Amino acid sequence: MSTPPPLHIREANAHLVAVHRRAAELEARLDAAERTVRAQAERLARHDQQLRAALDELGRTKDGEIAALQEQLVTSEATVHNLQAALHQRDKLIRQLQPRAELLQDICRRRPPLAGLLAALAEAERLGPLPASEPGHPLSGGPSLLLVNSTGEEGDRDNLPPAVFGTTV
User: Fold this and answer.
1) How far apart are CA 78 and CA 72, in angstroms?
2) 68: confidence class by pLDDT, cuts 50, 70, 90
3) Please, which of 8, 63, 126, 160 could form a disulfide with 4 given CB 3.0 to 4.6 Å?
4) Is a pLDDT exceeding 50 seen at residue 157?
5) Three-state SS for 163?
6) Mapping DSSP to helix (H, G, I), strand (E, B) and coil, where does residue 148 land?
7) 85-117 as b/e, with b when 16 or more CB fall inside 10 Å?
8) pTM higher than the cut 0.70
9) What is the largest CA-CA distance in the chain?
10) Residue 141 DSSP label
C-alpha cells in the first residue's frame, strides 16, 4: 500500500482535531445540561417537599377547624335544646297564668265603676246619719226603714221606697 499524500494526512489530521474539538464541546454542553437537569431536579424535589409540607399543614389546619366546628355544633345543639326546654316551660307557665291574666283584666275593666261606688259609699259614711227631726217623718230615725235592694231580688220588699243617703226628699 502506498502512503497517502501529505495533504490528505493534514486534512485528515485537521478533520480529527475538529471532530475532537466538537466532541469536547458537545461533552461540555452535555455536562452543563446534566448539571442544569440535576439542579432543576433538586429544585423540583425541594419545591415538591415544600408543597407536601404546606399540604400537610393545610390538612392539619383543616382537621383542627373541623374539630372546632364540630365542638361548636355540639355546643350549639345543646344550647338549642336548652332554649327549647325553656321555651316549653314558659309556654306552660303562660298557659297556667292566662286565666289569671284574663281575670285581672276583667277586674281592671271593672275598677273605675267600683272606685266610683266606693267613693259614693265613703261620702255617704262621711255624711253620717240624719239628725233626728220629727218623730213621724220617714227619715227621722223613728221606726226603722228597711233598705231596699234596687235590683229587685227581695220580692216582698218591692213596695218600699229605696233608701237615700245624705239627701232629703
Assistant:
1) 10
2) very high
3) 8
4) no
5) coil
6) coil
7) eeeeeeeeeeeeeeeeeeeeeeeeeeeeeeeee
8) no
9) 192
10) T
Give the residue among 143, 127, 123 at the shortest CA–CA distance from 135: 143
C-alpha cell at 168: 232629703
Q: Which three cell numbers stand for residue 139?
A: 227619715
Residues present in the chain in total? 169
- Among 140, 137, 161, which Cα is nearest to 149's? 161
pLDDT tens digit sequence for 9-23: 999 999 999 999 999
Q: Which residues, other chains included, contact 120 with Cβ-Cβ below 8 Å and sequence gap of 6+?
A: 165
Angle at 162 between CA 158 and CA 164, to 5 degrees: 175
Q: What is the pLDDT, as a whole number, of residue 2?
A: 81
Q: What integer pLDDT is reported at residue 4 of this predicted model?
A: 86
